[in-house]
Write a sequence for this structure.
């Protein structure tokens, strides 16, 4: 399975790959390759070292090609080509030089030239899989079918080569994720794949929202490659999406106790906060969300998440403070729905409050909707209707009619609409009924019948309206 690593961009391969090379030889090459990169490809500064190395390995095409690859890493195309030519000269029937030529062309965005050199590699060295794979990766942009045919040729030459995994990786890099997953799913034993190929398979499944499959693959990866923390990340994310918060926490814990050099990102802490919130660990959730703010101070939505946690804790003061900060940061980006969520906090605050507390909360919610009406013309009717409901809750005495002016405003705003939605008609029915009953209780039969007639237009079977019309 080692050969599949060459699916990664050629410039990343900075180590001798031939199994016959002795460890001391590899160490010698690693040293000069590092020196080339450290010197930013300054061949003159390494003249003596390069001369000695070339003299020692001048008949080894892989060694020459890999020196060229080190120069390619730092964009010294002249020296990279020079060593590619040397590799071809001493190894005409080896893929190394042709592959390097292709990688040079590819890095210079000349896909046609790159494909030509990769094809040469398949002609002169039929047993090396890299030419087939690299050709397919370049060619799939112009002819995906032809690219797959090249991989099928590789299957004939090396039946044990994981062609389906190579095709999956190829399509994944081309952002054709559904096709990539179709090929990956043909792999009989995903656990036998190289770590980064298995990870690509896993993340592809996650990207197309197949969270169950993504979790199964991530679980396999976590067991097979316990030091590859990215598998724990995908397992954690997938279970969070599936709302299996207990399992998500298990893998989040593994992620945060990582052994490799993986860097934590904002989503790690955001999803962690989500999991902790849903498990009732509210203080830990707030701490997690604040870590997001540390990593990315520009994240405005974190204040909303923190507000949501305080709502769960029924800490209304902090819930409002954080949500208001969220609105302040949104500024002109805020819309009516954002403000509705603030009003919802006040409405939730009524739960368990005494009568005075409920009235105070309703008045705060009313202030929010008054603000909505002044800020957003498109939401004036919505705000009027919400204010009517709020004022009706504050005083349910229809005779007094505390909600009357707001229902009247709603009617004034919605009746002129040429086209009314089902929601519009339903709300009009509520408003008409409220006003009809209000006027009946105040002995204003004519006005009551006016609204009862309108009510029957939107709700023909309404008994209250029929009774009023029969008076």
């Amino acid at each position: 399975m080692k050969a599949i690593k060459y699916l990664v961009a050629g410039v990343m391969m900075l180590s001798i790959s031939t199994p016959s090379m002795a460890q001391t030889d590899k160490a010698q090459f690693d040293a000069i390759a590092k020196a080339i990169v450290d010197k930013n490809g300054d061949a003159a500064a390494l003249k003596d070292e390069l001369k000695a190395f070339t003299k020692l390995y001048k008949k080894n095409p892989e060694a020459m090609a890999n020196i060229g690859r080190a120069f390619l890493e730092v964009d010294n195309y002249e020296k990279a080509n020079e060593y590619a030519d040397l590799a071809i000269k001493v190894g005409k029937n080896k893929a190394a030089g042709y592959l390097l030529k292709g990688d040079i062309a590819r890095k210079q965005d000349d896909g046609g030239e790159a494909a030509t050199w990769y094809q040469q590699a398949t002609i002169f060295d039929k047993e090396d899989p890299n030419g087939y794979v690299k050709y397919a990766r370049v060619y799939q942009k112009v002819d995906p079918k032809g690219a797959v045919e090249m991989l099928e040729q590789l299957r004939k030459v090396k039946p044990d080569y994981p062609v389906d995994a190579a095709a999956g990786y190829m399509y994944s890099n081309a952002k054709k994720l559904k096709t990539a997953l179709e090929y990956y799913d043909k792999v009989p034993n995903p656990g036998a794949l190289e770590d980064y190929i298995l990870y690509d398979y896993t993340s592809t499944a996650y990207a197309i929202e197949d969270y169950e499959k993504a979790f199964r693959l991530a679980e396999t990866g976590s067991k097979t490659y316990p030091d590859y923390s990215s598998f724990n990340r995908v397992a954690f994310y997938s279970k969070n999406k599936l709302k299996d918060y207990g399992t998500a926490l298990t893998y989040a814990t593994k992620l945060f106790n990582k052994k490799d050099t993986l860097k934590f990102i904002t989503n790690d802490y955001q999803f962690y906060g989500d999991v902790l919130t849903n498990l009732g660990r509210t203080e830990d959730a707030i701490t997690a969300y604040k870590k997001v703010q540390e990593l990315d101070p520009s994240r405005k939505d974190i204040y909303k998440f923190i507000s949501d946690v305080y709502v769960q804790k029924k800490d209304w003061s902090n819930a409002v403070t954080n949500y208001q900060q969220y609105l302040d940061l949104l500024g002109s980006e805020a819309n009516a729905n954002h403000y509705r969520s603030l009003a919802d906090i006040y409405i939730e605050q009524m739960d368990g409050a005494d009568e005075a507390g409920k009235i105070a909360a309703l008045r705060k919610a009313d202030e929010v909707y008054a603000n909505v009406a002044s800020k957003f013309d498109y939401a004036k009717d919505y705000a009027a209707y919400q204010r009517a409901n709020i004022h009706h809750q504050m005083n349910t005495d229809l005779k007094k009619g505390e909600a009357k002016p707001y229902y009247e405003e709603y009617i004034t705003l919605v009746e002129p609409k040429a086209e009314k939605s089902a929601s519009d008609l339903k709300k009009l029915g509520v408003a008409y009924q409220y006003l009809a009953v209000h006027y009946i209780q105040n002995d204003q039969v004519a006005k009551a019948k006016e609204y009862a007639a309108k009510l029957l237009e939107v709700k023909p079977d309404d008994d209250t309206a029929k009774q009023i019309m029969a008076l």
Summary: Residues 355-375 form the longest helix (21 residues). The mean pLDDT is 91.
